[in-house]
Amino acid sequence: MRWGLLLIVLGLCGTTTGTVEAAETEPWNDPFWSLLHEPAAIAELQLNADQQQAFHALRDDLDLRFFPLRNQTKEVATAGTLKIIAEAREKLSDLLEPQQFQRYQELVLQRLGNDAFLHPLVVDRLKYNAAQQAKLEKISAETNEAAAALRQAVADQTKDRTAAQQEYTKLLERQQKKLLGVLTPIQQSALRKVVGQPFTGLKTSQPHFRAPDFSTAGEWLNSSPLSLKELRGKVVVVHFYAFGCINCIRNYPWYLEWSEKFKDQEVVIVGIHTPETNAEQNSASVRRKATEAKFRFPILIDAKKENWNAWGNSMWPCVYVIDKQGYLREQWAGELKWQGNDGEKYMRSKIEALLTE
């Protein structure tokens, strides 16, 4: 059988479409967790009405417990995330029928791509001998080392991002051929069965995370207190800022431009002012600076960092885009125009796309 055909049959061809920037080793990048947030993956399970209701309640609860972990120390975040994923695995197993849970496991393996060769489910099913296990581990380690070198070259700006991406794609293709070459024909057949029917929906699916609602404790400017629940049906743009932060100030023109552009559409911009310095604690100063900046959209003064911590935010500024159902769909950390990036155009396109949903 030709390699190209075999890769498609195995359902692992998506491994060659990843990005060179990502080193997805942290537990929050576990595909079991991330796929819970991709509508295409959940639709593939064909949940009945009762299952859908229970699933969304479960996922929303887990999300609201996950968000506060994002700005904790790596040790705390890792331990907390692993606990949440373990709970998700246990409760999803109870919620789904056996064939549904098996299909979900297949989607997890397909999302893992080349890493699936060393996943415990695959290792248990294929029964590698010691020599095979060592070869597979060596191939994966060499690929990871080469990928890390590419990422560093991009970070050091010694390699063009596009060229690095092309090299990374070829690197994964070579890795996959080497990994398959270690398997016997019987093991290759078993691998096809364990990863299941290829699912192309994984390539285009976009994650949905339940966004934390606004704290009721803060003072509001330009608006009565708001909640994401009452804003359902509208696209909500949330930006965390501090009035003394120069990086935040450089984003101001885009917030004003969005306010004008979308003023007659179902878009609400909400600023959350979380103080970085003692001077920014004064609500009168926040109000005065907002007036000077010509902010007419709602602003929540987050003096006690309750919203900052609920969202697990860790940077000034940070922009989030929430869809009409209250799910986080995109975020941009830092200046929108930092070092030649066009985050303004990118985030504006996301707002426009969500308006059409």
UniProtKB/TrEMBL annotation:
It comes from Bremerella cremea. The keyword Signal applies. GO terms for molecular function: antioxidant activity; oxidoreductase activity. This is Thioredoxin domain-containing protein. Keywords: Signal. It comes from the Bacteria. Residues 1-22 form the signal peptide. Residues 205-356 form the Thioredoxin domain. Transmembrane segments: none annotated. SUPFAM superfamilies: Thioredoxin-like.
